[in-house]
Amino acid sequence: VRTVLISSGNERAFCAGANISMLGMSAHSWKVNFCKFTNETRCELEDATDNSAQVYIAACNGTTAGGGYELALACKEIYLQEDGNSAVSLPEVPLLGVLPGTGGLTRLVDKRKVRRDLADVFSTTAEGVRGKKAVQWNLIDGSFPRSKFDESVRARAEVVAKEAAASIGGETRVGITLGPLKVEAGEGGNNRLYSSVKLDCDPETRIATLTVTGPTAEDLALVQRGPAAIHAAGDAVWALRAYRELDDALLHLRINHLDIGLILVKAQCDVARTIAYDKALLDAADADKHAGQPTWLAREIIGFMARTLRRFDLTSRSFFAIGEAGTGWGGNLFELALASDRFYILDDPDNAVQVGLSPLEWGPLAMSHGQHRLGVRFYGEADKLEALQGNYAPMSPEDADEAGLVTVRLDDIDWEDDTRVAIEERASLSPDALTGMEANLRFPGLENCDSKIFARLTAWQNWIFIRPNATGPEGALTLYGRPERPRFDWERV
């Protein structure tokens, strides 16, 4: 599939976003998680356009409001039906007293480059903007009369599909089947066991342990056989299977375990094998080297790994990577340590723990703001970053510490007490303050559209959600759909 045309089966209505009455009645945590997940989904549409030659086009065949227009904004092109009634709008500020929380404001000015004064008018005009003015303001890419709308957008989609197909050299891609994940869930949902991921939650201490197991020798041999073998294995390929499981575990934590504040991350792998696995997966993604073979699947698997790690980055919990005896941190699994807020490692000759980098560390698994995690770690230390280039040999705890890859290195005498104190201290701190602190510390460097959505827009939206002007007894969101008018606290802060 090269082009996805998003439209509506309802006449005169494309999409109006969330069910406002239900959203108004939802708990604050649900509002936040809802917006974050839908933000991630919209970013995935853009990621597919940028990296998978799969272009999304919004065919707005009716009213396109709020989250509906935000869905359209995530598409590469937007076309609106001309029928005297259809308009695009972001009515959240004037009608609900909240923000368009899934990227609308940011994409207006950063992606579509709408002039800021026009964006201001648009974002406070509940009825929205129609037809030619919407085109002039760059809110849409074009409009077609209702009588010719379907054929016009389909004709455009066919042109885009040909262009996208040409961009991948006319490669034929046959998809694979993603079967349901196999998971054993413990009583109360506190434990989840997958094939390569294990999640154990302790509600009493508000701490969870997330363990990811690396590839076996058989897993490595499979990817080393190349693109055709990877395609034949489908969803059984370790990288795809393990990261689907990790993705599921992260979403389970977000939605079902709001009380868990600290996650102890552990990776168990043969470091040299995992580095070799990453190299083989990258090799299988090389279309020039493997002409005529399904190299696209290896690229899609790497892209999915990157998206899952970005979900890890954006999860509002503290993460401590625990390099205890029996753990190994190689290649893509070392990304879990880089993504964590701290990395503690045991330095004990009798219980060797190794760390190792792979080529995946240098860009393919980029964060939301486009930087790789090694670059973020050494944002002001270019010499240390340069010294690590091409170093793909397993490292001892001492070598990893000297290279700057470890937060705290402890011997076997201090390990138990020092890690226990650090864990207990973190679990005792304000969850609100930690969420804000972590969001500010995890993303050094330049911003992009995605990072602004998850940082600036999301942070303001989450604050507005708990303010009386939106969700108080007389707030605009609370009273939406009722005859009473909202009463605002007019103090600007």
What gyration radius follows from the Cα positions, in whole Å? 24 Å
The number of helices is 22
- What is the helical fraction, as a range of percent? 40-55%
Beta-strand level of the residues, as a percent range?
15-25%
- Unreliable sequence segments: none
Write down how many β-strands occur, each being a DSSP E stretch of 2 or more residues.
17
Order of strands, widest sheet = 8-9-10-11-12-13-15-17
Largest beta-sheet details:
8 strands, mixed
Q: What fold name stands as the CATH topology of the largest domain?
A: 2-enoyl-CoA Hydratase, Chain A, domain 1
CATH homology-level superfamily of the largest domain:
2-enoyl-CoA Hydratase, Chain A, domain 1
What does this structure look like?
By secondary structure, this protein is of the alpha/beta class. It has two domains: 3-167, 2-enoyl-CoA Hydratase, Chain A, domain 1 (Alpha-Beta Complex); 184-441, 2-enoyl-CoA Hydratase, Chain A, domain 1, CATH 3.90.226.10. The protein is built from 22 helices and 17 strands. It has helices spanning 20-25, 28-51, 67-73, 92-96, 104-111, 116-123, 131-136, 149-167, 217-224, 227-233, 238-256, 271-284, 295-314, 334-339, 373-377, 382-388, 397-402, 415-428, 431-441, 449-465, 468-471, 476-479; strands spanning 3-6, 12-15, 55-60, 62-65, 77-82, 88-89, 142-145, 184-185, 191-193, 197-202, 207-213, 262-268, 318-323, 328-330, 342-346, 354-356, 408-410. The chain has an eight-stranded mixed beta sheet, with helices on both faces. The protein has a four-stranded parallel beta sheet with strand order 1-3-5-7, sandwiched between helices. The radius of gyration is 24 Å and the shape is globular. The mean pLDDT is 96.
